[in-house]
Amino acid sequence: MEERRVVITGLGAVTPVGNDVKTMWDNVVAGNSGIDFATRVNKDDFPAKVAAELKDFDPTLYMDKKDARKMDPFTQYAVAASKMAVEDANLTIDESNRDSVGVWIGSGIGGMKTWEDQHTKFLEKGPKRVSPFFVPMMIPDMAAGQVSIQLGARGINSCSVTACASGANSIGDAFKAVQRGDADYMIAGGTEAPISNMAFSGFSSMKALSLNQDPKKASRPFDANRDGFVMGEGSGILILETLESALERGAHIYGEIVGYGATGDAYHITAPAENGEGAARAMRHAINDAGVTEDQVDYINAHGTSTELNDKFETEAIKRVFGDYASKIAISSTKSMTGHLLGAAGGIESVIAIKSIEDSVIPATINYETPDPACDLDYVPNKARKQDVNVVVSNSLGFGGHNVALVFKKYQ
């Protein structure tokens, strides 16, 4: 059976640098950081002091107050971004198509705030005071479930839980569902609301978080003085649909998704495989799936977490795949501005990748001040670059050895 072409017709986002796609993109292009001192936790209790939090997010703009109270923030973020994306796509979901509209939204850790709040209530007031909504608010698949309910989408409904690769896996899996004919439209991406005492404690114990006391300088991917990632929150959602449907509807086509590669390291629970071997295989698979050659790739939106091992081994992975051409590719980590949104990272960074194609702009890696001999490629330092962008690779890597690469292409 002939594979169907899949295009992107809608974008939605709530992020630390803006609660809609335009604001987010304008800030990313301008090099503005959304990182500040943490307010969701008492920063004085932790060695890490900074986080990338949403500002002025109001869930009641997108759902009833009663419904919002039954959702953890990670689900609220997904519902908001999904409704924006559906509206942006000018997609009407009704009886004529609702069975062919699917939802695939990933989350790495689900409802952390709900878990903490209800556990505290359990300890202080006993089991009878635990909310009957505790479990359905906490479980990671509920973002996809609630988006389906809120929008009436009755097609395939799923959630990829692959740590920091969750959003990218969800987009890749949704792409394949449309490509092979399991759905005609997919609402796909990632969401996360992890800034809580338990998550902060866990990542602090791992010594994974940046201890930099200057919020705007803390996330510094590929820089020699990087010292850990900055935890972020939010959601990024794409509307994927068949090219045939998009043309028939007269929809605006942002670009095309053409490649998906996913691999496992089989190496370590948190550390990436030596020399970026697993990430390299994911990129190769995605490029082969896309039917493009290495020298056609204009931009790589790197996973680029600002941790010592990730940035070093991701650089090595890019060199393994692209050889001498690696030094000619523009690479940037927008986590330098958004922080690391964990399971939502792949969703947000896919939106950024698509906007880079549409606007012919490659966002910078800000805070790149001191070159690292182990990270010696073109990381588009500190200032966005105006450049024609036809093909983008977006990388996402997760604890457990999950590696994902997506390939987006200018629609022609």
UniProtKB/TrEMBL annotation:
UniProt keyword annotation of Membrane present: no
Database matches in SUPFAM superfamilies: Thiolase-like
InterPro entries, sorted: 3-oxoacyl-ACP_synth-2 (IPR017568), Beta-ketoacyl_synthase (IPR000794), Ketoacyl_synth_C (IPR014031), Ketoacyl_synth_N (IPR014030), PKS_Beta-ketoAc_synthase_dom (IPR020841), Thiolase-like (IPR016039)
Top-level taxon of origin: Bacteria
Group of enzyme by EC: transferase
Pathway field: Lipid metabolism; fatty acid biosynthesis
Family as reported in the entry's similarity comment: Belongs to the thiolase-like superfamily. Beta-ketoacyl-ACP synthases family.
Protein name, entry field: 3-oxoacyl-[acyl-carrier-protein] synthase 2
